[in-house]
Amino acid sequence: MTIGGVSQLTVGDLLDLLSAEVPGPAAGSAAALTAGVAAAVVAMAARRSSASWPEGNGVAAQAVARRARCLELVAADADALVKAIEALEGGQAVEAPLRGTIQVLLDLADAATDIADLAALTAERCDGAVRPDAAAAASLARAAVEVAATLVRANLTVMSGDEALARVDQRRIDATAAAARAGAAQ
Amino acid sequence: MSAEQIGTAELADPELVELCRAGDQEAWSLLVERYSRYVYAIAVRGFGLAEAEAEDVFQETFLRVYERLGGLRDPAALRPWIGQVTRRLCLDRLSAARRETVADEPPDAAATPLEAIEEAMDVHEALRQLDERCRELLDRFFARDEPYRVISEALGLPMGTVASRISRCLDALRARLVDGRNHLSTTS
């Protein structure tokens, strides 16, 4: 699965891929897609508020950058997962491919937390008409971080005290706080 | 005063041209460094030249710039002038190649439009004019994909202010882009 390939798929195609029995995109990719959707909603709310909020266009640009990052991660997570499954099924060393899946999930937690922050900032400053959209985007982004954290924990190679767990937990705290800020702005 | 004394990053094109004309080797190295990617991008991505041909165009372009810099009427128009020299040399190469082949090859479909290369150069130039703090913020967020928390810790900024600061830096970048384009349109 390539990044260019993901951006050219229809929503229906992507959902078909997610539903398929064969190894491919799964929950991590779904979370990355969710975070990308959240970023798109933030960009919309920020742009629609730019007449009264001078920083709106700059916030939208940041959201668009993170949206692109999330699309990369949809593909990267599917690739990492396929490699890990192939290694497991083939009786090969699994630690490196499993660590590859964790790295993608940590990158996703980073990007989705940024999106939650942008959504909170937008909810606090945007026009009233799009404030519920910004708050909803914060919830979507926070959900993506939660999924990333759940999947990191489910990974066979992660033990308690692992640096990856500390990092993803910090992102959960940040994203939860951002979603709360966004909710309070309504 | 030489390029070394002034500090190369701050040197604007008119000053650079003046120093090159005065024989400052440091300034000449800076000019080549500043525009080497631009020339190469036009040749390879704009005209689809092969690497060896692009290398020839690169050498010829800077040789011509070196020889004719004294005749450049408006030093502020250095970039459009280098772009024009490069494009002419690329077209010469393509014309010569066509004469040597029986059937013309279709143009390279992957070639980047020249406008996109100019736009990238505009952004690069505008970024160069921003203060160091803004350059670093934009580089960390957009080029290195660093999360806000990492940027906040690395630069000692409150977490909640990073996105707003990046927005203001983007505004400053946009203003410089507009200024640069207005300036180019009056000089080229």
Overall structural class of chain B, as computed from helix and strand content, comes to mainly alpha
Low-confidence stretches of chain B: none
* Tally of DSSP β-strands of chain A: 0
**Stretches of chain A where pLDDT falls below 50 for ≥5 residues?**
none
Number of domains of chain A: 1
Q: In percent, how much strand structure appears in the residues of chain B? A: under 5%
Number of helices of chain A: 7
Using the alpha-carbon principal axes, give the shape of chain A.
globular
CATH superfamily of the largest domain in chain B: RNA polymerase sigma factor, region 2, helix turn helix motif
- Average pLDDT confidence of chain B is 85
Count of alpha and pi helical runs of chain B: 9
Helix percent band of chain B: over 70%
The CATH architecture designation of the largest domain in chain B is Orthogonal Bundle
Largest sheet of chain B: none
Order of helices and strands of chain B: HHHHHHHHH
| Largest sheet geometry of chain A | none
Total number of domains of chain B: 2
Under CATH at level 1, the class of the largest domain in chain B stands as: Mainly Alpha
What name is given to the CATH topology of the largest domain in chain B? Answer: Rna Polymerase Sigma Factor, Chain: A
User: Largest chain interface and its two residue counts?
Assistant: A-B, 20 and 17 residues
